[in-house]
Amino acid sequence: MTAVAAAHATVITVEDPAEVAAGAEFVLTVRVSCPAGCDLSGIPIELMGPDNATATLPPAYPLHPPLQGEGKGRSSAAEGGPGWGGGEAEYAEAPLPPPGPLTRSDLHPAGGGEEGSEGAADIAVARRIALKAPLRVGEHVWRVSCATHKTSGWHHDASLLRVPVRVRPHETSLAVWAIPSPVVTSRPFAIKVGAKSAAGCDLTGMPIAVRDAAGTMLAGGVLGDTPWPGTSSLYWAELTLIAPAEAGMFSWSVEFAAADLALPHQGSSSRFSIAIVDPPEHRLTIKVVEQEAASPVENAQVRLGAYRATTDGSGLAQLMVPKGAYDLDVWKSGYDAPTASIVIDADLAVEIVMVPMPEENPDTAWQM
To answer: For 172-277, CATH number?
Structure first.
C-alpha cells in the first residue's frame, strides 16, 4: 500500500486598512506563504470584490533577493478591469503560523520559527493591489484565495481569507464669520457661513441652515458656486436673520446635512454665540489719554459689555447704548487702566487715563 504524502498548508496574510472613505483608493498588501518554506511566489491569487467581481493576480517570481541599487521586485498587475490596479512585489520574510487551524488573529507580522525541513525559509512575496472603496457606507468584504496546487514537489491546500473593510462617509467642516456684535432686538442682520468637504468636493447649491437651541430653523440658503477667496473648497453663503425681541446672549448653530452628494458625506454642525441688545438710547463718548503727557492714546480697545470700539487719532471713541449700569474696560499693549463702573441714563462723556507700563527686560531673571 502506497503512503500518501501530507499536503502543506497555504497561508494568506493581508495588510489591510481597517477603514477607508467612500470611493477612496487604498492598497491591500497580500502575501502567500508555506510554513514548510516552499516558494509560493509563482502561485496565482484570486481576489473577489464585494460586488462578486473577480480578478486573478499573476505570479510574482523572485529570481534572487534584490541587490543594492536594484528594484524591490516586479510589478504585478491584476486582470479583471479597472479598480483592481496593480502592485509592486517586494521581498520579505513572512511569519510562520502557529500550529493548528489558522484564524485571522494568527496572521500578525511578528513571530518566527520553522516547520518542515531544518533551515527551511518561509518565502512570501508581497503583492500590492490598488483598490477603490465602494460608494456605499458600511462594512464590505474582499476575499483572497489560492486554489489547490503543487509546488516544489509538494501538494498545497487551498486557502481563503476574508478581508473586511469598513467604508465611512467623507467628513465636512463648517465656518461662521462676519457676525455683528451686538445686534439690536428685532432687527435684521447678516452672517456668513461656509462648508468644506474633506475630499474637496464641489458643494455648489447645497442647502445650509441656522437653527436656534430648540432646533427651529431661523434662516436657510444654498452655498454659492465660488469658494471663499484664499480657500480651495470653502463654499459659502450670506444668510439674513432677525434678532430676537428679547435682549441677551444666544447660542445658535449652523447645520449642513451633506445629503445627495455624489460621494457620501457626514453632515456637520457648528455652534456660535451672538449678543442681542435693546435699542440704543444714549451716546457714550470715551476719551483715552496717557497719564504723564496727557496725550491721546490711539488704537486703544474699548469694551462696554457687548459693545466694542477703538479710539481714533484724538483718543476718542463713541458708542450708542441703552440706559443701564456698565463696566468700562480700555486696553492697549504697553498700558494699564483700571475698570470704570458707570451708569448711563443720558448722553455721557468719560475720560480714561492709561498708565504706561515699562517693558519687561527678558534678562532680568539672569541679572538677579
So the answer is: 2.60.40.10
